[in-house]
Amino acid sequence: MIEKINALLAEIETLKAEKADEIEALRIKYLSKKGEISSLMNDFRNVSAEQKREVGMKLNVLKDAAQSRINELKEAFEGKDSDEGAIDLTRTAYPIPLGTRHPLSLVKKEICDIFRRLGFSIAEGPEVEDDWHVFSALNFAEDHPARDMQDTFFIAHDPQIVLRTHTSSVQTRVMEKEQPPIRIICPGRVYRNEAISYRAHCFFHQVEALYIDKNVSFADLKQALLFFAKEMFGADTKIRLRPSYFPFTEPSAEMDISCGICGGKGCAFCKHTGWVEILGCGMVDPNVLENCGIDSKKYTGYALGMGVERITNLKYRVKDLRMFSENDIRFLDQFESAH
Ligand code: DAH
After folding, report:
1. What's the 98 CA to ligand 1 centre distance in angstroms?
2. Å from CA of 252 to ligand 1 middle
């Protein structure tokens, strides 16, 4: 019996197999219930009492050796390509769905790019601001309604710390730090305490532009606005300026563009006027320059500010402002991908 075990041990050392069915055949030959090792186990009953211990140990060694040899063969085989489990390297990959850019990011980038071509560079500031940078430095009177609890979010019951209500606060910060020439474009998120509906939200986005230098005039502003409107909405776009009021500009104006939907003939979108309002602008009030340490006798400047949502609505005809913040993939997927 011992000889038989030794012979099987030697045989097992040299076993070879290349395919799954060959390995399975070996397993059956040695390890199955009717296999060679099992039949030796059956013969074990007849082994004399003195030999039982030695033969028993040998048999166990044999069984383990057979098991581990077959496992080895299996592992070696699984590491190899076989016909069945083969990977087809010529098959085209599954398409990886690309994300899309958020429409507000697309439009914000487009606005900034147009002003960058005019020599403006990006400036940013904090969303949690103090009263000075959002209101006081910008010439808002103490009792101006924009400071009202209805409009402004105050932080931790401190009336001095607010969520900025407009990106004009970035102007203030830049003017305090730098002397003219200043030519900046400030994109960012702003907050107002509004009831959320299809046409108002408690946060939205603005882009602000500021240009301060010697001899900057209203004509410069008008030319920049015309350039912007034509680049953004097409070469046929017309602009008109209506007198308006902002505490930080004097004179102030609001700009309309000819309605791109009806071409100026009048439609529901432009309320049959042929014009749609898109931004506020004006010459920087000398008080604002002085508040920020800029000599208003030496320098003049213009500023303008627009809502990114409004421009996006015009461009993509999004009818409900809430779509911008709902993260609905069906909406977002319709925009340009991110690469
Ligand atoms: N800050 C104004 C707003 O939030 C927009 C604005 C108007 C900005 C006129 C300007 C400007 O720079 O000159 O409604």
Report:
1. 36
2. 9
Report which DSSP code applies to 175: H
Q: Decide: 167 in ligand 1 pocket, CB within 6 A.
A: no
Give the model confidence (pLDDT) of 262-278 as tens digits.
888 888 878 899 999 99
Per the CB < 8 A criterion, the answer to whether 276 and 237 are in contact is: no
- Sequence-distant (6+) residues with CB within 8 A of 241 are 222, 225, 253, 254, 255, 256, 281
> How is 40-82 classified by DSSP, letter by letter?
HHHHGGGS-HHHHHHHHHHHHHHHHHHHHHHHHHHHHHHHS--
103-338: which CATH topology? BirA Bifunctional Protein; domain 2 (3.30.930)
Nearest-angstrom CA–CA distance, 149 and 159:
9
Q: What percent of the chain has pLDDT over 70?
A: 96
- Give the whole-angstrom CA distance, residue 178 versus residue 27: 83
